[in-house]
Every structure is written in structure tokens, then in C-alpha cells.
């Protein structure tokens, strides 16, 4: 026991604060050293530890969870004192893999970089994972049962299994993660930080700013989903709008007018015409020899399109209209039977608390009237029926409200983003007058890449300086 205490003490000294703030809010928590969950270039000095925080700050039972982070130190002796902190999207995605990439990025030349794993995700303890929902989905296909009903059956089994492990699902939401990030900053005594997020974590970082802006120097948000946006009331329209833009590009750029002419009209007519229709495919599950006749519907075809890269969608649509479904549905079924495709417990908990609790079913029905070819299809894999059995409390109403801030922000999105439209960066800009926007005209959700890294460098160096683009397909405004 004595040797263990000495080791923890020495490693805690290794995790010394990287700045010296004492005044900002946030609770100083215990750090428990750990092996780095991901491999980072060994030429960099890295600091890896668990941040130990309450599982549910509303409960006074003293129960804690462990959230790992990886701090990659810049080799520059004159590095800036404001690190870049990243956490991933989803919700439910892991964040620590980013540390591998940042070690190869020019961003590390000027400042330390921190990857922080959100509660309930892959490397966190506990991780909200299980096979119950995947098993129910597979059962629905094997036996041609109603998919939505089996999602509820699997959701109930999944919740019961997680709670049997002593997990309090009401502690896994954006409000708690926001507090986790502020506690991390307080524990490391960081008095100035740049926040980076993508998709869901773009909104999460806005919520971190909303809770307490004192430590926040700037924000970099890629394809952000603001907390004040009711995504389930938007996403079908977002998908439709992204397809409309894609079809416009196809009409302008395609040389095969016979195949791709009037594709928007053909697509909407075909997918409206197959409403309620059932299709069947002979399928042999891996590891078995029996051929099963599996039923699929329009929703499965739409699921294929939502998960297809934009540049391939026009061809896939023409094939589907011809009735050539087999290869696409087989690939989707292979994924369902061979991998975990169900939403994680963290994703379900966050969406139910953050989004579904605040959504209007009336608006959802209006969407189906406006876009009849989407009727009955859940673009988001977490929806009301699943949340009705998950039963977690909503996040604070204040977190769902937009707010004004004069902090500088770099906001980027792809013109064909089918999930979080560029409209969202315009909405954020309305509330953040010192923000700047980048529209990548050939991209969809999550722009990333070398060009985005270059803009990030320019912005981090001088966050109030106007960003300019020298590329026609990237619009700075």
C-alpha cells in the first residue's frame, strides 16, 4: 500500500498543472495515473490519467467514475500557454484517437493538445456498452419482426443490464460532461484554453462556454450541432436539403444526362411509390449454412443512402430505382450481423436527455407531410419510443437556450452536410459576432483535413484576425 501511494504521488507530480489559475470556478478533482489508452508518437512527452468525478452530481452518494485524458506536450520551448482541448462527437464517440493524429499535426508545434474522453464512452470507466440492443435488432431481421418494436424490447433489456452493473443512467448527459470539462481545467489549473469539437461536441463546447467563459480563449467547431437546435425536428429536412444541393451539382456537372437527368424528381417519385412495400433478400448469416429470407423496406434503403458518401449517392440511387437492391442490402446486413451497429448506452442517454425530451412530435409529423418519401424512417437511431423506455431526466432548460458571447470562434461546415446544415454555423454566428465561418463546398459532415488544419493554425495564432481563403471551393465569410 505504501509503495502504491508513493507511485501515485510521483506520477501526480508528473501531471503538474500547465498554468497557474486559482480563481475560476470548477472543482479540483483527483487524478489517477494510467497507461495511455492510445499510442502516441514516442518522441512526444505525453501525460495520461483518469479524472475522477461524481457519476451524478445531483446525487450525494459519493459514487465516482473515471474519465481518461491524453495530454500531448509541444516540443517548442516557447509554446503558447493556452492548450487545445478536443473531445469527440456522436454523442457516444471516443475522443482519445485524436491524440495520435495531433502528434502528426502542425498544431502541436505551438501548444499542448489534450484529448478528453467523455463519460460513458469507449475508454471511460464505466463504459456504457452491451449486446442487448444489437441482439434484438438481429432478431428482428432473422424473424422479420417489427424493427421499432424490437428496438424497444432491446432498449429495455439494455437498460436493465446497465443498471444491474450499478450504473446510474441519469448521470450521463451534456450537463454532466460540461462539468467534467470544467473540473478537468480546474484540476490542471488551466487558465486559458481553446476548445475544439465536432458535430455533437461542437454544441457541447458551446455549453462549456455558456456555463463559464472565464477560461475559454476561443472555440473551433467543425459541423457543430448547437444545443439549442432540436435535431430530430430538423434532420429529415437537413437530409432533403443536402440531397437537393447534390442533385443540383449532378444536373450541372454530369455528362450522362440519360442516367442522371432529373435525378431529384426520379428519386422522390420512386421512394414515395414504395411506401409500405416489403422486399425480401436471401441471406446466409456468417457462421451458418441456412439461407434465411429477410424482409427489408424503404427505411433500410434510406439507411443505406444516409450512410453512403455523397459522391456515390447518385449512382446508388439510379441502381435502387432499377431494383438493384441486393448488394447494398447485403452489405448493410453484414454490418448488422457481424458488428455492433446499435447506439451505445451513452448515445441513448445523451440524446434522450438533451434532445428527445425537448422535441415536438407534432413537428415530426409535419416533416413527413413535407417529405413523404421519408415517412416512418428514423434518421436518428435514438428516438421517442426508445427514450420512453430509457427514462432519463432532461438536461437543464438553460442549456437548451441560445446565448450571446464575444469570444472568437472558427465555425466550419460542408455545403452538403446531411446532418448539421451550414445554417447552424450561421445561427451560432448570430450569437457570437466575433466568430468566422468556413463553407467547404465539396464536403459533407465533418470537414477536417489539411485545409481545415491550416485555417485552425491561422485562427489560433490570431483569433480576431479575418480569415481569408485562396481556394474557390472553400468560402470564408
TrEMBL record:
Residues 83-236 form the AB hydrolase-1 domain. It holds the Pfam family Abhydrolase_1. It comes from the Bacteria. Residues 1-21 form the signal peptide. Keywords: Hydrolase, Signal. GO terms for molecular function: hydrolase activity. The keyword Signal applies. This is Alpha/beta fold hydrolase. It comes from Spirosoma endbachense.
Amino acid at each position: 500500500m505504501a509503495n502504491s501511494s508513493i507511485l501515485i504521488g510521483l506520477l501526480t507530480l508528473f501531471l503538474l498543472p500547465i498554468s497557474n489559475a486559482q480563481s475560476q470556478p470548477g472543482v479540483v478533482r483527483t487524478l489517477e495515473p494510467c497507461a495511455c489508452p492510445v499510442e502516441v508518437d514516442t518522441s512526444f512527452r505525453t501525460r495520461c490519467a483518469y479524472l475522477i468525478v461524481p457519476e451524478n452530481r445531483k446525487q450525494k452518494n459519493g459514487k465516482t467514475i473515471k474519465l481518461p485524458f491524453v495530454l500531448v506536450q509541444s516540443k517548442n520551448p516557447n509554446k503558447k500557454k493556452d492548450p487545445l482541448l478536443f473531445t469527440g462527437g456522436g454523442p457516444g464517440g471516443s475522443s482519445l484517437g485524436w491524440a495520435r493524429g495531433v502528434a502528426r499535426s502542425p498544431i502541436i508545434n505551438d501548444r499542448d493538445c489534450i484529448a478528453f474522453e467523455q463519460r460513458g464512452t469507449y475508454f471511460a470507466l464505466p463504459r456504457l456498452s452491451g449486446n442487448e440492443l444489437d441482439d434484438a435488432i438481429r432478431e428482428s431481421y432473422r424473424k422479420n419482426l417489427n424493427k421499432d418494436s424490437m428496438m424497444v424490447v432491446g432498449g429495455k433489456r439494455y437498460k436493465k443490464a446497465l443498471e444491474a452493473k450499478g450504473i446510474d443512467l441519469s448521470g450521463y448527459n451534456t450537463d454532466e460532461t460540461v462539468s467534467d470539462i470544467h473540473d478537468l481545467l480546474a484540476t490542471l489549473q488551466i487558465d486559458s484554453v481553446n476548445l475544439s469539437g465536432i458535430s455533437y461536441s461542437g454544441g457541447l463546447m458551446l455549453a462549456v462556454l455558456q456555463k463559464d467563459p472565464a477560461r475559454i480563449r476561443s472555440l473551433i467547431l467543425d459541423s457543430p450541432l448547437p444545443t439549442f437546435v432540436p435535431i430530430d425536428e430538423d434532420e429529415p429536412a437537413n437530409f432533403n436539403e443536402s440531397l437537393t444541393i447534390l442533385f443540383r451539382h449532378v444536373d450541372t456537372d454530369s455528362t450522362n444526362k440519360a442516367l442522371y437527368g432529373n435525378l431529384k424528381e426520379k428519386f422522390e417519385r420512386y421512394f414515395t411509390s414504395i411506401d409500405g412495400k416489403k422486399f425480401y433478400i436471401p441471406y446466409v448469416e456468417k457462421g451458418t449454412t441456412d439461407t434465411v429470407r429477410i424482409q427489408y423496406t424503404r427505411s433500410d434503403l434510406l439507411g443505406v443512402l444516409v450512410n453512403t458518401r455523397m459522391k456515390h449517392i447518385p449512382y446508388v440511387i439510379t441502381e435502387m430505382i432499377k431494383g438493384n437492391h441486393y448488394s447494398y442490402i447485403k452489405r448493410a446486413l453484414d454490418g448488422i450481423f457481424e458488428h455492433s451497429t446499435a447506439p451505445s448506452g451513452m448515445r441513448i442517454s445523451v440524446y434522450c436527455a438533451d434532445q428527445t425530451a425537448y422535441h415536438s412530435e407534432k413537428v415530426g409529423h409535419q416533416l413527413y407531410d413535407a417529405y413523404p418519401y421519408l415517412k416512418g424512417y428514423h434518421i436518428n437511431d435514438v428516438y421517442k419510443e426508445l427514450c420512453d423506455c430509457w427514462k432519463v431526466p432532461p438536461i437543464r432548460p438553460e442549456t437548451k437556450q441560445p446565448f450571446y458571447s464575444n469570444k472568437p470562434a472558427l465555425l466550419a461546415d460542408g455545403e452538403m452536410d446531411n446532418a448539421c446544415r451550414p445554417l447552424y454555423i450561421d445561427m451560432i454566428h448570430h450569437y457570437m459576432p466575433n466568430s468566422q465561418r468556413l463553407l467547404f463546398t465539396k464536403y459533407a459532415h465533418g470537414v477536417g483535413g489539411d485545409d481545415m488544419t491550416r485555417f485552425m493554425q491561422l485562427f489560433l495564432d490570431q483569433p480576431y484576425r479575418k480569415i481569408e481563403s485562396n481556394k474557390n471551393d472553400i468560402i470564408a465569410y
